[in-house]
Design brief:
- By secondary structure, the protein is mostly helical.
- The protein has a single domain (3-185), classed as Hypothetical protein af1432, CATH 1.10.3210.
- Helices cover 66% and strands 0% of the residues.
- The chain contains eleven helices and no strands.
- Helix 1 (3-14) packs antiparallel against helix 2, helix 3 crosses helix 7 (101-108) and helix 10 packs antiparallel against helix 11.
- It is globular.
- The protein starts with a helix and ends in a 5-residue tail after the last helix.
- The structure holds fe (ii) ion (2 copies).
- One fe (ii) ion binds at residues 21, 25, 50-51, 128.
Amino acid sequence: MNIEDIKKELQQILGTKRFQHSLSTAEMAVSLSKRHGVSPEQAELAALLHDCARGYSIHEMREQIATHQVELDEVEQKEPGLWHAPLSAIMAEVRFNVKEEDILQSIRIHSTGNHGMSLLDKIIYISDYTEYHRKHLRVEDIRELAPHNLNLAVLMTINIKIAYLLEQEVLIHPRSIFARNDLLAQGVKK
Ligand SMILES: [Fe+2]
Ligand SMILES: [Fe+2]
């Protein structure tokens, strides 16, 4: 499936707003990939597809999880907001025929992060948070920082996301903590 066919199909399954988010995430991911020596083709494909299961209702996601025997951990089981990332990776493989594990992995962890994130994982994580439609807290700072210091941009994003989750009193996935610890242990700081 070529990129134009993928875009056409995504537009149908995601609806306008989410499709625009995916396009914009891809635009940012391509730009960051060029700055950080990652394949722009990989970055574009991963970013376009990172939310491809986002169009499902909770009920449909439950069905897909059962059909594809997705193993959810204890936190994921309790937090439906975390389901679309592993499901998007599965849809990318099954429906869009993406076989590259690097790409699937970056989709799978795009909302939580993880320890040992690859450059591609970091680019997708940041691009999702800072694409041009986003108006999140400190998004402009992170947008400016990411081309120069990807690790610090990831750390800032994780910190903001964790602070938000704390405030909301909802579960925090351990992968986000692993990602943060990993960067701090590497000496990444402001
Ligand atoms: Fe997402
Ligand atoms: Fe997203």
